Amino acid sequence: MTEHGTTFLPLTVSAAGEADDDGARTVRVRAEAADRAAAECWVSLVAGCTSGRQTLINRLHDLSEATSGYAGTRWWLSHGSVHRRRVSEAEHRIDDAVREGDGAEFAEAFIGYDQAVATVVVHVRNRLGKSST
Q1: What CA–CA distance (Å, rounded) separates 125 from 42?
Q2: Which of 31, 86, 105, 123 could bridge to 116 as Cys pair (CB 3.0-4.6 Å)?
Q3: Distance CA 35, CA 110 (A)
């Protein structure tokens, strides 16, 4: 993260930060960790290295798992399957970009990943809001 906020996962951090429950807090903490790993990996990528790749992949997996837990297994595997696929595909796309040393693809893949995870968080927040009224 930079002094001005997250670099790679601003939508996710913002969406999770707006919710006030343990699941959202877990997503936010994992998103912040993934964002730091992405920034470190980006610097390595720009320098022509691949260091930080495994750490980034681990942090993304942690964030995807936290998102799945926040969404709830039943929804994630049924109605949320489209979102689950989007998150998974974007995560794999980031991994491919790092392995190939493709900075443009890395940036594009992160946009897709951020949008996919943030969409799930907002969906869950909306679902929880509706169930409490």
Answers
A1: 31
A2: 86
A3: 10
Q: What is the pLDDT of residues 3-62, one digit of tens each?
A: 446 689 999 999 999 888 999 999 999 999 999 999 999 988 888 877 788 999 999 999
Structure tokens at 98: 């790092």
CB atoms within 10 A of CB 100: 12
pTM, 2 dp:
0.90
Distance CA 83, CA 77 (A): 10
Contact at 8 Å (CB) between 7 and 38?
yes
* Ramachandran quadrant class, 73 (left: phi over 0; alpha: psi -120 to 50; beta: rest): alpha
pLDDT on residue 19:
80
Chain centroid, CA 46 distance in Å = 21
